[in-house]
Amino acid sequence: MKTYTNPVYPYVRSPDQDGAPRHHPVIVVGAGPVGLAAAIDLAQRKVPVLVLDEEDTVSIGSRAICYAKRALEILDRLGCAEPIVSKGVRWNVGKVFHRNELVYQFDLQPETGHCHPAFVNLQQYHLEECLVHRLQQLPAASVRWKNKVIGLDVHDQQVTVRVACPDGEYSASCDWLIAADGARSPVRTMLGLESEGQVFRDRFLIADIHMQSDFPTERWFWFDPPFHPNQSVLLHRQADDVWRIDFQLGCEADPDEEKKPERILPRLRAMLGADAQFEIEWASVYTFQCRRMPRFRKGRVLFVGDAAHLVSPFGARGANSGFQDTDNLVWKLDLVMKGLAPERLLDTFDSERCAAADENLLNSTRSTDFITPKSAVSRTFRDAVLGLAKRHPFARRLVNSGRLSLPYVHVESPLNTSDRPGETFEGAMVPGAPAVDSPVTAPDAEWLLAYLGKVFTLLVFGDGVPAKDEAALASAPLSCSVLRVGGRRGITDTTGLLTRRYDGKPGTCYLFRPDQIVCARWRSFDASAVSAAIVRASACERQP
User: Fold this and answer.
1) 416 has a pLDDT exceeding 70
2) Contact 11/146 with Cβ under 8 angstroms?
3) Between 3.50.50.60, 3.90.226.10, 3.40.50.980, 3.30.230.10, what CATH number should domain 15-89+120-195+291-364 receive?
4) Could you give the residue ranges of the DSSP H alpha helices within 106-213?
5) Average pLDDT of the segment spanning 449-461
6) Which residue from 12, 67, 520 is spatially nearest to 321, judged by alpha carbons?
7) Would you list the domain boundaries of the chain?
8) Mean of per-residue pLDDT scores for the chain
9) Measured over all CA atoms, what is the biggest interatomic distance in the chain, rounded to whole angstroms?
10) What are the DSSP E strand ranges found in 49-100?
11) Mean pLDDT throughout 154-163?
12) What was the pLDDT predicted at 544?
């Protein structure tokens, strides 16, 4: 690639290779985006974590490029969103074309008052470099390059791994192992576990090209364009004037042939014009699957990201759901390891993220069926919908070029506390929903989410919490901080957005989990109700 040179991280002989096998609290297998995010989160919570990766560099090729607002908010909490957003390309608007006509366009973030855009596009290798740099800043974390896990034994109290490296082989053990080792997950294979779902035969060509262009920073998707008839094409801008173009090829395409420049260049010329100046950076041909493991927990092994679930690339649901996996998992694992919550709390990682994976799989499968109709009847329906969508808004809801990633709302979670009888709320901030950011005026940060995400947090509109109750919440084993909106020592809602988004009448309280998800809400403060909701949200109380 002309715009990027992969770093090479040094292999270093580890203490585990000399003497008796050493024990680690947590081992993460895989230094991709999801594994690195898990390790950073653990290390920020002062949990010692070791990352093992069989390579010595970041991603080869751009691979995942679209990071949604919720993923950026998680990365913010991990201390690495700023360089990612600064380097990446922000976008909110998408356009859908049928043949050579614009069918309609959409804005994924039509309202103001959000710290991050709907999406940022950035090549995966840049993102991974940012994550590696952040990990290296944290004393509780270490990463071993060229260390390949080749065997493991799962016991009741620990996991033992066998690792191959340039100096030979060694063993190490851990209390918990996080498998973030990708779609082909060797850890999953070693445990004899399977994924279930659908494998699609359609082939797609990714061509990353370096090009100076005045195309706007938007997502453009074509159905049956004149430059690539009977197929679909997707265009995205990335950093460094690199453009991602996806060409649908059909299931009979030969992947080895289609990756050759003499096959790629005519497609690009037909799309961009004979006079366009560009260079091919990277190309790949792929098929995809919509599958997941039946369970994301196997004893002391926890599966995240592509190791746990696979979706089509339409909708940018892969890496974005992987970040949400680790965001859901790590605070729970931290409480369990500190003896503040029972192991059954980790079962809610499995149930919550399996439900989220099912939603992603459903949306991903529907997108694929619309983009690649499997029969003449399906194609006729698809084309009729596209024809209607240009003039009739009702049809636009049926157009599916990839339902773009949104965070899952865990409305059925057993960790939620139901609203009290007679109390009503407007808006989307129901128990199970991730917090929506809002601008605030305060000494430490200018956005609400900067104050959420370390411990349980009670957001209070006004001065409804007595000082003695605030002190009791802060000093409890499951610590809870109080964040006031207005009143004494509070943050200021200068724009009014925070109050509107949370229907924040005076006295209203929202309880957030450490992953910034609402788990309870009340119209007035009640110390016993808050304590009971924290107990419920940490699975310290057995559910009926």
Assistant:
1) yes
2) yes
3) 3.50.50.60
4) 124-136, 186-190
5) 96
6) 67
7) 15-89+120-195+291-364, 409-544
8) 94
9) 74
10) 49-53, 66-68, 89-91, 93-98
11) 96
12) 46
Specify whether domain 409-544 bears CATH 3.10.28.10: no
Which of these, 235, 209, 205, lies nearest to 401 by C-alpha position? Answer: 235
- The residues, any chain, with a CB within 8 Å of residue 156's CB and separated by 6 or more, are 299
Using CB atoms within 10 A of its CB, is residue 368 exposed (0-12), middle (13-18) or buried (19+)?
buried
Q: Which two tokens stand for residue 330?
A: 């790590």
The sign of the dihedral angle between the CA atoms of 300, 293, 317, 70 is negative
| Amino acid residing at 348 | T
The tally of CA atoms less than 13 A away on the side-chain side of residue 104 is 19
User: Rounded mean pLDDT of 521-527?
Assistant: 97
Q: Which of 515, 523, 312 is nearest to 404 (CA)?
A: 312
Dihedrals phi, psi of 333, to nearest 5 degrees: -65, -40
- Residue listed under structure tokens 């079962």: 347
Read off the tokens for 406: 């949104």
Instruction: Return the pLDDT at 542.
Output: 64
Rounded to 5°, angle at Cα 37 from 534 and 456: 15
Task: List the single range of 255-259, 277-281, 447-451, 485-489 with lowest mean pLDDT.
Answer: 485-489
Q: How far apart are CA 107 and CA 118, in angstroms?
A: 9
The model's pTM is: 0.95
